[in-house]
Amino acid sequence: MVTGRSPLAPPRSRTGASALRPRLAAATLLALCALLLFSAASLYVGSRLVSPTAVSRILVDALTHLGSDQTSLQRAAALDLPVQDYSAVVDLRLPRTVIALAAGAALGLAGALMQVLTRNPLAEPGILGVNAGAAFAVVLVIVLLGVSSPALFVGASLLGALIATLGVFMIGTLGAGVITPERLTLAGVALGAVLAGLTSAFRLSNPREYSILLLWESGDLSQRGWETALPALPVAALGLVLAIALAGPMNALSLGDDMAASLGADVHRTRLLLVLTITLLAGSATALAGPIVFLGLMAPHVARWVVGPDQTRLLPLAALLSAAIMVLADVLARVVVWPGEVPVGVVSALIGAPVLILLVRRRRASGL
């Protein structure tokens, strides 16, 4: 029987916690700088060559006239710039940057919450079947309803994530009526496998729609604009607020059910809120960017390696890191085969897999 503390449990020593503060400050500053640098690159780099001066003028103009009913053609004429340049920055690069930031942060937080919920440092958002449910719902609206607009995928993705979560709870509580990490994990893996199989079956039975499904499932951001971002951003923001609010109860939960209860934490309510928050975060991220792998697993690992398992420190850093990595992946996706693009999901996997292998080989990083 293993009697040691969970690798996800916060440190007991106040001295040890104080020693982490300089590291936390340095890591947060570095992550913020990287996030700003990659975000700037996302705005200034693209398949269309637009001079940095023109991009700066366009961004200032867009912020100055935020909410204006003027079209890109009118604003471009006012700046004496080609309308293609104005549209490339405001209608393509700016929403892509916002989507990458929001989806990345949501996936990083969802991964950190999932690892505490299942008490498994190698867990990631897809383990509860949330991503599979969201993807299956999008496949249904594409195949059965003929929907091809990414904007309409948002509602389907969120609804699929919610239904998958409810299904996991129903399966996980059958018989015993008690929610445990083990039962949730098994139910999520089983339901995710079923939904993935059904998704493949629909895809193979409808070759005409295969290209649309393939584009969405690969995490391609080139077809996503404000019509995709605006419906999902409030959901992601709500999930972010809930995740930060749950940091304290998560620290108690990582000590074990008995210890958490003795510290005054409501174990079952905390788990329910964690599942709800993971659904909001993973569902909104899938709606924004499609199924993205490794990011929700990698970012919390990096954050835990840097600042330890205290969720009050880990969650903000994980959100910053995952957002920065997502934006970097999107920038690289635009330039590796310029003037063409590759899906950001492919690039994030190429970045995430080697980093994850390096981390899990480090005893301190893996905590296993």
UniProtKB/TrEMBL annotation:
Species the sequence originates in: Brachybacterium alimentarium
Pfam families, alphabetized: FecCD (PF01032)
Record carries keyword Transmembrane helix: yes
GO BP annotations listed: siderophore-iron import into cell
Keywords assigned by UniProt, alphabetized: Cell membrane, Membrane, Transmembrane, Transmembrane helix, Transport
Family under the similarity heading: Belongs to the binding-protein-dependent transport system permease family. FecCD subfamily.
Gene Ontology CC: one annotated term: plasma membrane
Topology in membrane: Multi-pass membrane protein
Transmembrane stretches, start-end: 24-45, 97-114, 126-145, 152-178, 184-204, 232-252, 272-302, 314-336, 342-360
Subcellular location(s) of the protein: Cell membrane
CDD domains: TM_ABC_iron-siderophores_like
InterPro entries on file: ABC_BtuC-like (IPR037294), ABC_transptr_permease_BtuC (IPR000522)
Molecular function (Gene Ontology), one example: transmembrane transporter activity
Protein's UniProt name: Fe(3+)-siderophore ABC transporter permease
Keyword Membrane annotated: yes
